[in-house]
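Thread: Newbie trying to understand structure tokens

Hi all, I'm a second-year student working on a class project, and my supervisor (Dr. K.) asked me to get a predicted structure for one chain before our next meeting. I've only ever worked with sequences, so writing a 3D structure as a token string is new to me. If someone could post the tokens and maybe explain what I'm looking at, I'd be very grateful. Here's the chain:
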Amino acid sequence: MAKRIAALASIVAMVIVLSGCSLQRPWNEAAETALVLQAVGDWIEAVEAYDVNGMCGDGVLAGGFILTIEEGGLTYSKDKTKLRGEVESDAINQQMFRDDGGYEMRLDFDHPVTPVAPDAWDTRENANGLTIAFVPRTKATVVAKFEVYERADSVPGDRWWAHGNPSDRGKITIELVPMSTGWKMSAMNIQFGSTIYASGLGSGGAKGFGLGRLSP
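---
Reply by user tm_fold:
Sure, no problem. This is what the structure looks like when written as tokens:
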């Protein structure tokens, strides 16, 4: 009997390690909220800068991560390996576009129900709004509306896409799991506004995270 109990304990410990869930620290929702906000905020900054490790490195995405993109009635999914390969394949062009083409991106997360100033819908601002729902000690779900604002030297006028209007918008849902030092993303669903971008993903699907319309 003792051997069976020891074996079960070992299995439970292994499941906890593989799931990425940390049960070592006491649960404090305010502290965990701050860690989730930090994880999401760091990811947004990485997308804006096209920082490959910050977008899809091992320190950001959990094992088994799946990205699902929905647009124009089409759905396209990719795992961590495929996503990393796509992002890496475009890294040099993206950096040159930023360095030589004056490209900038603002990925603006807005509260999905009621934004509170300075967070605002249909406005490019530096505040990010979102909601967080916890399953304590096991999972956090983040939901936000999003808007993508882009500009580059190749765009006429004030350099902003469509006179400062978003180049993309929609809804994003991120699931995260707790680790010893913070939270990692285990799943992400990006739903683009089908009425705005009715052409959909095309036969090859959206590359990388599919955010933005200006290309290097």
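A couple of things are worth pointing out once you decode it. The beta strands are 61-71, 74-79, 104-110, 131-135, 139-151, 168-178, 183-192. The longest helix spans residues 29-49. Feel free to ask follow-ups in this thread.
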